[in-house]
Design a protein that fits this description.
Membrane topology: Multi-pass membrane protein
Keywords: Antibiotic resistance, Cell membrane, Membrane, Transmembrane, Transmembrane helix, Transport
Low-confidence stretches: 476-498
Helix content: over 70%
Strand content: under 5%
Order of helices and strands: HHHHHHHHHHHHHHHHHHH
Organism: Peterkaempfera bronchialis
Structural class: mainly alpha
CATH class of the largest domain: Mainly Alpha
Distance between the termini: 23 Å
Protein name: MFS transporter
Subcellular location: Cell membrane
Length: 498
């Protein structure tokens, strides 16, 4: 195997701008949630169209991720990263200036499209920039903390901006972040020579993957609003299965596939994609129900609600940078991921005891700390392992798969857990004669019922991580760009210690 090139001297400065871009993409998934009621009043958005402010972003983002990752591999990750940043800034400015529903929804879809280019470019730049084991552990520790805690930071920032400025600033705030990150990227981000993919774009694969992922994500959105048995919901799920099976068939035959099956056929990476996607389902349960609980049941303001999530953010940063990063080069990833997901499940288990009069300090605080520490510890090796050992020419598409598993997991989590909570709330209330005075108790009962599911899902995630991920500690570098076609399986992930 050719010698690994010397690390770029400004790689740590580059990490600042890569991390800044990732923070913007992740927090944008939740920052608009808190601003949404104000935007709905201001623009006269109907209740039926309200969900599209969120869905327009997730559909474009989830549906175009594989395409974005491959474009980054072919056109260059630094170029894709910079274009993604500037496009995201423009779309955010357009959304902030929206004068009607259509303009806001179009801007959100554009944000998702540019986010789908930006997110895999950011992670793949990290993968090809940090190849030495200890440095890689530190870099992915920082990145993992942002990937895990960005959603909670979005809730805090969304609350502050909405309460003290205007809902439009939940979108405008992306503009200075994106511009700073783009200028920094142009100045200091370095893409190693010879790491691009010279193949042409697989158009049939693009069409099948995009339509299949959009159908899947939209199917879960419709399940939440129309029910799981609705004709439209079932039709979308059937279409998603057919399209994605067609995608796999095409990818196994074409000369230059959009998603080379060698990327996902690796047992360890498959374990990461599956366990991470499931864990995100559980995480969305926390964001969704705690936000409602704190604001509606407890009467917290948006700002106080956001600040109430700070312990979890602190736990994620600690778990990722102080536990995950320090141990990643010493123990196998599954011995970080499985215990991490179990710790998060234990935090969720505490939240199943939620009552209308529960104490924040006595119940919610310890649950959040456990969740943060657990998810931070697990996210960090997961992010690194998902791109570790991939040939540099495939780094963008491997990174896109990480983001896709998270995006699909988030969509499933929102629809599945929200549906379970709503059904449990209704049943509890009906059993007590529908007394409106009991509405808060009914809602909290529904949250607890859905959180039990999240506990189970996180336990399954831990089991998958422990059984599927068999590699030893990550002590090697990524494969060289000079690796021959098909060599991926031989050099995929160096197994140093079991």
């Amino acid at each position: 195997m050719p010698e690994t090139p010397a690390p770029h001297p400004r790689r740590w400065t580059a990490l600042v701008f890569i991390a800044l871009a990732q923070l913007m993409v992740v927090l944008d998934a939740t920052i608009v949630n808190i601003a949404l009621p104000s935007a709905q009043r201001d623009l006269g958005i109907s209740d039926g169209n309200r969900q599209w402010v969120i869905t327009a972003y997730t559909l474009a983002f989830g549906g175009l991720l594989l395409l974005g990752g491959r474009i980054a591999d072919i056109a260059g990750r630094k170029r894709a990263f910079t274009i993604g940043l500037l496009g995201f800034a423009g779309a955010s400015a357009l959304g902030g200036a929206a004068v009607n529903t259509g303009m806001l929804l179009g801007a959100r879809a554009l944000q998702g499209a540019f986010g789908a280019l930006l997110a895999p470019a950011a992670l793949s730049l990290l993968a090809v920039t940090f190849t030495e084991a200890r440095e890689r552990a530190k870099a992915f520790g920082i990145y993992g903390a942002i990937a895990g805690g960005g959603g909670a930071i979005g809730l805090i920032l969304g609350g502050v901006l909405t309460e003290y400025l205007d809902w439009r600033w939940a979108l405008y705030v992306n503009v200075p972040i994106a511009v700073v990150a783009a200028v920094g990227a142009i100045a200091v981000v370095h893409e190693p020579a010879g790491s691009r993919n010279s193949n042409r774009l697989d158009i049939p694969g693009v069409v099948l993957a995009t339509l299949g992922l959009v159908s899947l994500v939209y199917g879960f959105t419709r399940a939440e609003s129309d029910g799981w048995g609705a004709g439209a919901t079932i039709g979308l799920f059937v279409a998603a299965v057919v399209l994605l099976l067609g995608f796999v068939a095409v990818e196994s035959r074409v000369k230059a596939p959009l998603l080379p099956l060698r990327v996902v056929a690796d047992r360890n990476r498959a374990g990461v994609y599956l366990s991470l996607g499931l864990a995100v389902i559980g995480m969305f349960g926390l964001f969704l129900f705690l936000t409602y609980y704190l604001q509606i049941v407890k009467g917290y303001t948006p700002v106080v609600t956001g600040l109430a999530f700070l312990p979890m953010v602190a736990g994620m940063i600690t778990g990722s940078t102080q536990i995950g990063a320090r141990l990643m080069t010493r123990v196998p990833p599954r011995l970080l991921m499985a215990p991490g997901f179990l710790a998060a499940a234990l935090g969720m288990l505490i939240l199943t005891q939620l009552k209308v009069d529960s104490s924040y300090a006595g119940l919610i605080l310890p649950a959040q700390i456990l969740l943060g520490l657990g998810m931070g510890t697990a996210f960090m090796p997961a992010m690194s392992l998902a791109t570790h050992g991939v040939q540099p020419r495939d780094a963008g598409i491997a990174s896109a798969m990480v983001n896709t598993s998270q995006q699909v997991g988030g969509s499933i989590g929102t629809a599945l857990l929200n549906t379970i909570a709503a059904s449990a709330t209704t049943s509890w209330l009906v059993a007590r004669g529908g007394d409106p005075k009991l509405i808060n108790q009914a809602a909290v009962h529904g949250y607890a019922a859905a959180i039990w599911w999240a506990v189970g899902i996180l336990a399954v995630s831990a089991t998958l991580a422990f059984t599927l991920i068999t590699t030893g500690r990550q002590g090697g570098a990524i494969a060289s760009s000079g690796s021959p076609e098909g060599a991926e399986d031989e050099v995929a992930i160096p197994v140093i210690a079991h």
